[in-house]
Amino acid sequence: MNDMTSILSQPVARLGATTITLGGVLTFGAVLLLALFLALVIALWRAGKARAVAATEAADHARDTEARMADILQAQAEMQGRMGAIAEVFGARQAELTQSLGQRLDAMTGRLGQTMAEQTKSTHESLAKLQERLAVIDTAQGNIQSLAGQVVQLQAILSNKQTRGAFGQSRMEAIIADGLPHGAYEFQAGLSNGSRPDCLVRMPNGAPMLAIDAKFPLEAWNAIRAAEGADLQKAAAQASGAISRCISAISPKNT
What we know:
Helices cover 74% and strands 7% of the residues.
């Protein structure tokens, strides 16, 4: 013990009137290492907390986007139903108007001796009914314009690749869940080769399972639709390359 104390008290350097011993150097080194360790622990804790917050925000954003898309689709379906009802009402009222006008013309032909006042009254009634029909048409036109605005909004949302991918995957899952029995498919299933397709369908009679990915080169398809003349062939070639790349990216998940 005395030997250890003697070793630690031996001077190793001198700064002016201050003597630095071996024990002091070791103590300073231990304190410095402890401070560095604490700083590393705090940095790792903050980084983990930041990643958790970012993941939570991303999940909330995805849920909000899916909810907005569901609301837009529901509104579109309701608008289509209303448009169908309006068209049916308009057709029925138009037939009633035609029948009414025909009856009035027949009555006017058979009553040539009636007074001009009765003819004027009948004309005013017909015009009032016609005005009601025109009001129905104006209402239908306003509904069509509103539906067009919602379609534009849907196109704006689908122009974002990330949002379009989430929407396409959710629609794919809904279609498969509606069309296949429970247990015949699995979403985001892991395969033995390490890949993870969007959906894995279990085929009957021991056939190999079918892997499905919700991918489609929308930009290339829109380019074909917009191309004309000589640009159409170029757009078709680019679309073919985009589809081939999608197939190449998906094909390993079927092995």
